[in-house]
Write a structure and sequence with these properties.
Rossmann fold; four-stranded parallel sheet; 340 residues; signal; SBP_2_dom; carbohydrate binding; alpha/beta
């Protein structure tokens, strides 16, 4: 397996109207490949390759950001046409979208999986039948021949937990917000906290609950915790930014936000603003722009046979965002239009 590491950051582009057609577009429409055209012929002047990106749920901030960055990144390749098909947070919908895309002759499928363990065998089967796949942003490495572009979730948890260790007393009381059940990113981030923070201090976990990555659920759970634990809570340890921000808003309504530290993961624009305003203590960036650029590069190299193995696995670096360096990210998000 090839391993490469890269770095960067970025933005947002409108979804193309043709995306409404989803994977159901005919191979004879637009600039997609004609029946019988090989990848080699396309690479040598034929029509375009058809690539599908199947995100988890476009209503989720990171999935939307990644879709926009992929749309931008693929503009660098004139022989590739990208279509984004929303899975709307439903595993069955994502599985159906995969089946349809393969049946319709898409040349490559980029998958932001909802449940990797439930999808690995299916993806492996499609690859064996001849359709290359990439796992992006989330991968349990259950498919050897699938490409992969991720920010290591354990590393994301490590950099934030290390900072939390310096910001909290050894005997702090914390509440923990988890991602969806079975989600690899949530599991690995939580494991990093256990091994680097909880297991090395006298901290007490007052409670931990699944917030499904959602701001509203983070807020609801925090409201409940405030009722039960009141001012005992020293910190909110969240496996993503959205839940942390929701928890902050609940604490603010209760008037206790200044007594609690909030830690997240993702490094989204609204989280950078929260760090700048002193609402969040820290987050870790997993850079959708870099993921998209690496994903587009790998896809192009596989389709044009520049990559002879047919896949590549990449882990991009992670970056801690705190009050010390947040101004850099505010500037970047403002310049690329994610902040006004």
């Amino acid at each position: 397996m090839k391993m490469r590491k890269f770095v960067s950051m970025f933005l947002m582009v409108a979804m193309v109207a043709s995306m409404l057609l989803g994977c159901g577009a005919s191979k004879d429409e637009g600039t997609t490949k004609e029946e019988g055209t090989t990848n080699e012929e396309v690479a040598n002047g034929g029509d375009t390759f058809k690539v599908a990106f199947l995100p988890t749920d476009m209503s989720m901030t990171f999935a939307s950001w990644l879709a926009d960055e992929l749309t931008t990144a693929f503009k660098a390749y004139d022989d590739i046409e990208l279509t984004v098909i929303d899975s709307k947070g439903e595993l069955e919908t994502q599985l159906s979208n995969m089946e349809t895309c393969v049946a319709q002759g898409y040349d490559y499928v980029i998958l932001l999986p909802i449940e990797p363990a439930a999808e690995d065998d299916i993806v492996a089967g499609y690859i064996e039948e001849g359709t290359p796949f990439m796992m992006i942003n989330l991968d349990d490495f259950g498919v050897e021949n699938a490409s992969s572009v991720i920010a290591n979730p354990y590393d994301l948890g490590i950099v934030v937990s290390e900072y939390a260790k310096s910001q909290l007393p050894d005997d702090a009381n914390v509440v923990v917000l988890l991602g969806p059940s079975g989600n690899t990113d949530s599991i690995e981030r939580r494991r990093a906290y256990e091994e680097n923070l909880f297991g090395k201090t006298n901290m007490t976990i007052l409670d931990e609950q699944i917030g499904d990555w959602e701001k509203g659920k983070g807020m609801e759970l925090m409201e409940n915790w405030i009722q039960v634990h009141g001012d005992k809570i020293d910190a909110v340890i969240s496996m993503n930014d959205a839940m942390a921000i929701g928890a902050y808003e609940a604490a603010k309504e209760a008037g206790i936000q200044d007594d609690i530290k909030f830690f997240g993961v993702d490094g989204l624009a609204d989280a950078a603003v929260a760090v700048e305003n002193g609402e969040m203590t820290a987050t870790a960036l997993q850079d959708a722009k870099v993921m998209a650029e690496e994903g587009a590069r790998i896809c192009n190299e596989v389709l044009t046979k520049a990559n002879s193995e047919g896949f590549e696995k990449v882990q991009i670096p992670v970056t801690l965002i705190t009050e010390e360096n947040v101004a850099e990210f505010i500037t970047r998000y403002t310049e690329n239009g994610m902040l006004k």
